[in-house]
Amino acid sequence: MKIDNVPYRSVWVDVDDGWSVHIFDQTRLPWSLDILRLTERDQVAHAIRTMQVRGAPLIGAVAAYGLALALRHDSGDEAMERDAALLAATRPTAVNLAWAIRRMLTRLRTTPQADRVAAAYDEAGRICDEDVIQNEAIGRQGLELIEEIAARRPGPVNILTHCNAGWIATVDWGTALAPIYMAHDRGIDVHVWVDETRPRNQGASLTAWELGRHGVKHTVIADNAGGHLMQHGQVDLVIVGTDRVTRTGDVANKIGTYLKALAARDNNVPFWVALPSTTIDWTISDGVNEIPIEERNGREVTHIQGRDAEGRVTGVQLVPDGSKAANPAFDVTPARLVTGLITERGRCPATADGLCDLFPEYV
């Protein structure tokens, strides 16, 4: 994608700068576009934990490069396994992270120690390239849904999304936003309702920033406004991303997604989930009981960051002194509330049979 007409991916390697890894600091957006230079494993782990880099596909790709950076210091078996375990444990809910580390180890365990650094960079690069291809394919699959709505009637196609599942959350294109970008680029009149996505405001900060830079019409709304808009016929379609999908179609996504799915079902609004196949966890079937839900620091709820009248980025406290805050980062939307899944291989019902029809190798 492009920022001010300059093409970027969300992670890249600078060969001329000692094979350092570069990412955007997402905690600084939308106020400034800061690029972080990563040269150590611990820098990568910190960036993932603190959400300087976030988005299920992207943290998997960045963690893969983190292992490559670690191997530059010690490429022995014991160190490699230790470093891989540390990176895999940085965030628990998004399955892409563990998937990427497993894939790296599958190749590196059979690679001679002297060749491991080069192999690690190569494999991490392959993970990134495949993510771009998958997300572009997801965009084409989801575009058809938008085209069908646009063909039925005049006026804008109003799409609601939650959190950020755009190109800044992947290596490129995004998942839920990829069909929107493609529709916009084809001249379809599309408008996006952007949930603020408390408590970290990834919608208001990141999705709105992305859409604005690409010229897509959008309106930021409070998280609890979506149901009202659906009741009044102002939402044609909901598309969200996901951090983990069970083999039966349950979906874990940013906290608040479940409530959007309930409102969509009550108002007969299609609720679609966009994901690459790397987000499917084929080992579990009950999302509510089996997907680990990350509990983040309560300060994310009690405080908020913004820009004041003088242009300074600052934080303020929202709650009374002494009030405790709980901060589950994700919730699970049961498959029964999901209209369907949009993958790189096509669309399917959110069921075990639907997923197996697209991915028979996992049956």
From TrEMBL:
Q: What InterPro entries does the database record attribute to this sequence?
A: IF-2B-related, IF-M1Pi, IF_2B-like_C, Initiation_fac_2B_a/b/d, M1Pi_N, NagB/RpiA_transferase-like
- Recorded coiled-coil stretches: none
Q: Does this UniProt record's set of keywords contain Amino-acid biosynthesis? A: yes
Which positions bind substrate? Answer: 54-56, 91, 202, 253-254
This chain belongs to the protein called: Methylthioribose-1-phosphate isomerase
Catalytic activity line of the entry: 5-(methylsulfanyl)-alpha-D-ribose 1-phosphate = 5-(methylsulfanyl)-D-ribulose 1-phosphate; 5-deoxy-alpha-D-ribose 1-phosphate = 5-deoxy-D-ribulose 1-phosphate
Family assignment from sequence similarity:
Belongs to the EIF-2B alpha/beta/delta subunits family. MtnA subfamily.
